Structure formats: structure tokens, C-alpha cells
């Protein structure tokens, strides 16, 4: 009986975790997230009312994980792919793996943010929702004075 109860609680905690981040839950505060990601560093956010914490990740094609908080509650996670490691063939493989995992994309949204002297442009491909998150595959270009200064491939997780 004890094994059954323990198994029930273990499965329950996994069921309520965020897709691809089973230890985390939406609404957690930064200190709790830091328990699972102990090398988080606070970053300057371009979004008012939002705090950003990031952790570098050199063990995979992901270069950085960024956790976004509003009112001390986790509201978004971005995984930035490493531009020096990911080739165009890798992008296709990453997308196909995501499609195998989540299904065909259900929506495509253009990205356009005017931040004054800097503009962000690109596309966001949204997969069908999981029980706990919306997952999107984003290509974002950063332009300053009409010139491309950066380009990022991002996997975005937001609450459902």
C-alpha cells in the first residue's frame, strides 16, 4: 500500500510539471526555480514588469535557458539554440523532432517588436497545446538601423 501511495504522488508530481521541465510549475518564484537551476543569473529585461534569469547550457545545442517572471511568478521559458553549433540541417531536424513530439504546428504568427532603435522580426510556429504549456518554435532577427545584427532560434514555453 505504501508503494502505491508513493507511486501515486510521484506520478502526480510529474503530471503537473511543465512539458520538458518536469520539476517546474508555472507560477514558481525565482528562488524555487533556482533550486533546480542553481547557476541562474539575473539579466536586464527589455520588458517592463518582467524579470529574466538565465543559465548557460554548453552540453547540448541549447546555449542558454531563460526564465521569465512577472510578480515573482514563472510565466515563460525560452531555450536559445547555439548559433555556432546549429546548422540549417540541424534546424530541419529540430523542427521535425518537435513535430514528432507535439504534432503539426497549429498556427503561424509573425513577430514584430519595435523597441526604439532596435526591431525584432521573424516567425513563430505554434504547436498544439500540451496539457500544461504552449510550445512555439521561433526564428527572431534583431535589426538596428535597418541592418541585421543578430539572429536567434528559440523554443518558447508559455502557460496554457
What would the keywords be for this entry?
44% strand, eight-stranded antiparallel β-sheet, disordered N terminus, 3 helices, 160 residues, globular
Give a verbal description of the structure:
The chain is of the alpha+beta class and about 160 residues long. It has one domain. Helices cover about 20% and strands about 45% of the residues. The chain is built from 3 helices and 8 strands. It has helices at about 1-15, 30-35, 90-100, and strands spanning about 40-45, 50-55, 60-70, 75-80, 105-115, 120-125, 135-145, 145-160. The chain has an 8-stranded antiparallel beta sheet, covered by helices on one side. The longest helix is centred in the middle third of the chain and has 15 residues, at about 90-100. The N and C termini lie far apart (about 35 Å). Mean pLDDT is about 90; it is low at about 1-15.
Amino acid at each position: 500500500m505504501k508503494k502505491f501511495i508513493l507511486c501515486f504522488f510521484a506520478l502526480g508530481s510529474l503530471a503537473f510539471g511543465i512539458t520538458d521541465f518536469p520539476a517546474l510549475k508555472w507560477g514558481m518564484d525565482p528562488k524555487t526555480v533556482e533550486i533546480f537551476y542553481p547557476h541562474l543569473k539575473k539579466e536586464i529585461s527589455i520588458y517592463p514588469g518582467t524579470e529574466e534569469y538565465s543559465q548557460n547550457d554548453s552540453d547540448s545545442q541549447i546555449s542558454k535557458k531563460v526564465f521569465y517572471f512577472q510578480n515573482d511568478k514563472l510565466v515563460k521559458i525560452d531555450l536559445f539554440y547555439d548559433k555556432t553549433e546549429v546548422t540549417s540541417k540541424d534546424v530541419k531536424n529540430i523542427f521535425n523532432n518537435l513535430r514528432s513530439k507535439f504534432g503539426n504546428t497549429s498556427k503561424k504568427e509573425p513577430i514584430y517588436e519595435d523597441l526604439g532603435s532596435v526591431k525584432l522580426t521573424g516567425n513563430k510556429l505554434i504547436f498544439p497545446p500540451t496539457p500544461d504549456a504552449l510550445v512555439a518554435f521561433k526564428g527572431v532577427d534583431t535589426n538596428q538601423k535597418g541592418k541585421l545584427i543578430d539572429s536567434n532560434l528559440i523554443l518558447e514555453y508559455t502557460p496554457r
